[in-house]
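Q: Glycosyltransferase family 4 protein, please. Structure only.
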Amino acid sequence: MKKVLILANNDVGLYKFRKELIEELLKDNKVFISLPDGKFVKELVDLGCEFINTNISRRGTNPITDFKLMVKYKKILDKVKPDIVLSYTIKPNIYGGMMCRLAKTPYISNITGLGTAVENGGLLQKTTIFLYQLALKNASCVFFQNKENADFINSKISIKGKQKVIPGSGVNLKFFKVLDYPQDDVINFLFISRVMKQKGIEQYLDTAEYIKSKYPNTEFHILGFCEESYEEKLKDMTEKGIIQYHGMQSDVRKFYTISHCTIHPTFYPEGMSNVLLESAACGRPVITTNRSGCREIVEDGSTGFIVEEQNSNDIIEKVERFLNMSFAEKKQMGLAGRKKVEKEFNRQVVVDAYSTEIFKKEV
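A: Structure for Glycosyltransferase family 4 protein:
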């Protein structure tokens, strides 16, 4: 019985996007999860995982805090003595990778996005790239979620082990089933994301304000935790009837039942957008930005529309095009998106890729 250690920075992503992999691993292995405590930890423990509470400052740059995380990972490795380590997101990839390399423990890293530190350039980018060089050099395998991220990292550092581009986290096509397309007496748009500037919330609010005034038979919904100082603006726009803010939702499928289209105006460094994958899997057209991690999921004009980053006018134009489509055209656009994710983004592909690397068997 192998011991598998998973390093992650939050419980939500681990449960929602990697549950199927964990279930597969638990069939014949003991699985340890190292991450901060959260409401989905109980779900993961109920599956059979052994939880190790590990505090992580996800966006902090304090070197003392990061050094403490490295020490914590070293202690975990010494205690658990895993046969293999799986890591996700930047800090677990970097500091977990460095400690695995030091301990000569096999490890697989998953680059779930490069993050703002890399994308914005400057000293922080150089420092992060240097740390990636130390962390990924001896990885057994590095999974990238899009080709652009893979090309960028490989242009900066040398990776000795295997590497592969996988379809993000994939999407569970049984959980996110095709839903009946709603009648279009009132057209409902969804924004599902953390409410923060880089996720395009300002462009979405601009769009809602303009479209709602011109097309009263529209509704603009927002689902997600408010991470930045948008609380007052969301409250004000809700009171004016421009938007409906629903806060954090544990299961978004009930909102997809009323939805006609998902708008994802992000300019955040995505790995592969789970929001877009889930929306398309439910048979919903999408409008999103022309950046890696988003454009791969959309066939412009067929399954949705692609817009320029930080361009509210472009989003408004595409929303108006969508509104002028017939019911049958909107429905067909959503079904075309479902076919695309069935063909290219089935989560089983990701589970199989990990099984191949962990157990060295073809699936």
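A: Brief note, in case it's useful. The CA atoms of residues 280 and 337 lie 5 Å apart.
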